[in-house]
Design a protein that fits this description.
Chain lengths: 320, 253
């Protein structure tokens, strides 16, 4: 690992959060900033910066961190570089729950509750089918997850086709990932710390697990327990991110790869740096999404892809 | 230290590989396992390491059932060189070899990447120059040396090696065999599957032949590795070449 990589990632965090406070649909003059810092600013400015932008930045950062952490864990668990937080169908279950609630005209907490129920049902089905019945064989877990995800995608398509036109817009934003409704920030942060606390002690074992289960076992890793804990951490992270902001794509798939291509391989570095880099990336993407064409908002999922794709292609092209 | 196998039965779907195997290896033993492809050499090694269950019988290390040990305890006492490995390691050669220290790592993170055992293992396998390179840039033979180095870094008193000479050049084959024999002389138990009877005859003091019929023959290498026994084992005619009171056996074509 080049020693500059962790430094760059850590420095990007305050820059991203700072940008999220500075930019938005209402421009704030430098003089206003000085007054804000000395506590003499307009109530409206204070409300915009601390009441609107700060919680949203905090939500974006937590979601990005959660998604990148889940991606890093699933990529090593499934030994598949294409694994992302949505591969196992847990978010598909959440989507079905959320859209079902919207179809019935529910909103706010009810949508989140239904989404959580959907995610829990999907995770339960995955555990039942792949762990109980097949004893955690990697390709079977993944096939089960892909099958569940395909089933949920079909139900989502059905719901979209029968939903009244007025509700479809909200549903599409939910599906693409949207942070505008993310006002309650603490559940995501709680989940982030819980998932990190679960996953970080497994870091060395995950290094060995990347070489295969038999090899890991020969190096003294309790394979079943490690896989279960890592899967639990990934599921908690995915569900928390999806409940906060819907299914934002790309962050979970690409952030761990960006770090690996930059030379970060050991999981004790990869996991925390993924959280920081994923958080910073999503914060910047969300800031751009809401301020570039204000008062219009782009779906943040589209922005993460637009930012991430060129960076990944560039890194792929220059590393061997 | 003593590795005891009692009435071991190993089955794979449709076939019995090992039927009623009993043997005892004391500290200092260097034992070769020979057999045709699919005879059960790898399966036996996995069972001895506790990596797969026995279908009957027991494996005991100092009287303690290996299958009752916790994974980490087992890995501290028994090191295995696997024949196949999932090849997607992103780190350096040194970090790869340091994974061998995992069973000994104390804390959550266990960062003794520069431990003396790691450097020593890299030196023994001639990998010091490659230590800082990404593992995936190594050639097939160098990867095999890195795997052996990882096993050496694990520093277990019992070493089980599944075809350790795969992909190695002639000089490194000799080096690995000599090093394994030296480890055995220093008081460890070494058991390795081999395809080359002359290496077994030269460096091992015990030999175990696994026949396709699930029967076996075990004893002192000099008694077991004879032309008659090996012709029966491999099911092909062998030709003996005498060189400096050594007998080399080759298939006669």
């Amino acid at each position: 690992m080049r020693s500059s990589v962790p430094l760059v990632v850590v420095l990007s965090v305050p820059l991203a959060l700072g940008a999220a406070l500075c930019f938005g649909s209402v421009p704030i003059a430098p003089a206003e900033w000085l007054r804000l810092l000395s506590g003499e600013a307009d109530a409206a400015v204070v409300e915009i910066v601390w009441g609107l932008r700060a919680p949203r930045a905090a939500a974006a950062f937590a979601c990005g961190g959660l998604l990148a952490l889940a991606g890093a864990l699933l990529q090593v668990l499934l030994r598949n570089p294409l694994a992302d937080p949505y591969i196992l169908g847990v978010s598909g279950g959440a989507s079905v729950g959320a859209l079902g609630a919207m179809l019935l005209g529910l909103s706010g907490w009810a949508v989140s509750g239904w989404a959580f129920a959907g995610a829990a049902a999907a995770a339960g089905a995955l555990l039942l089918f792949s762990l109980r019945l097949t004893g955690w064989q990697v390709h079977r877990v993944m096939l089960t997850g892909v099958a569940l995800a395909a089933g949920f995608a079909a139900i989502v398509a059905l719901i979209l086709s029968i939903a009244p036109a007025g509700r479809v817009h909200g549903m599409l934003f939910w599906l693409m990932g949207d942070l505008s409704g993310a006002t309650r920030v603490w559940p995501a942060w709680l989940a982030l710390f819980a998932a990190l606390a679960l996953a970080l002690p497994l870091a060395r074992r995950l290094d060995a697990l990347g070489l295969g289960t038999l090899k890991a076992a020969s190096l003294g890793v309790p394979v079943g327990r490690t896989q279960s804990l890592a899967f639990l951490a990934a599921t908690v992270a995915t569900v928390a991110a999806v409940l906060t902001a819907g299914a934002i794509g790309f962050v979970g798939l690409v952030v761990p790869h960006l770090l690996r291509l930059a030379g970060v391989d050991a999981h004790r570095a990869l996991l925390p740096l993924s959280v920081l880099a994923g958080g910073a990336l999503l914060t910047v993407a969300d800031t751009f999404a809401r301020s570039a064409a204000a008062p219009l908002e782009f779906p943040v999922g589209a922005v993460t892809a637009l930012v991430g794709v060129p960076v990944l292609l560039w890194l792929l092209a220059r590393t061997r | 230290m003593k590795l005891t196998v009692r009435d071991l039965v190993l089955r794979v779907p449709g076939r019995t590989l090992v039927q009623g195997l009993s043997l005892e290896l004391e500290a200092g033993a260097c034992c070769a396992v020979l057999g045709r492809n699919g005879a059960g050499k790898s399966t036996l090694l996995h069972a001895l390491a506790g990596l797969r269950p026995c279908d009957a019988g027991q494996v005991l290390l100092d009287g303690q059932p290996v299958h009752g040990l916790r994974r980490r305890e087992a890995a501290q006492r028994i090191g295995v060189l696997l024949q196949e490995e999932h090849e997607s390691y992103w780190g350096t050669v040194r970090a790869y070899v340091a994974l061998g220290r995992l069973p000994h790592a104390g804390g959550w993170f266990g960062t003794d990447e520069h431990a003396e055992a790691v450097e020593e293992a890299l030196r023994t396998m001639d990998l010091l120059e490659r230590a800082g390179q990404p593992y995936r840039t190594l050639s097939g033979g160098e990867r095999q040396r890195a795997r052996i180095a990882q096993l050496l870094a694990q520093d277990a008193p019992v070493l089980l090696l599944d075809e350790p000479l795969t992909h190695l050049d002639l000089a490194h084959q000799a080096q690995v065999m000599a090093h394994c024999a030296a480890l055995a002389r220093a008081g460890r138990i070494v058991l390795m599957s081999l395809h080359e009877p002359s290496w077994a005859a030269r460096y091992c003091d015990r030999a175990l032949l696994l026949y396709d019929s699930a029967h076996f023959r075990h004893g002192a290498a000099a008694d077991v590795l004879t032309r008659t026994h090996l012709e029966a084992l491999y099911g092909c005619r062998l030709q003996a070449i005498e060189i400096q009171d050594r007998t080399l056996l080759f298939p006669s074509v």
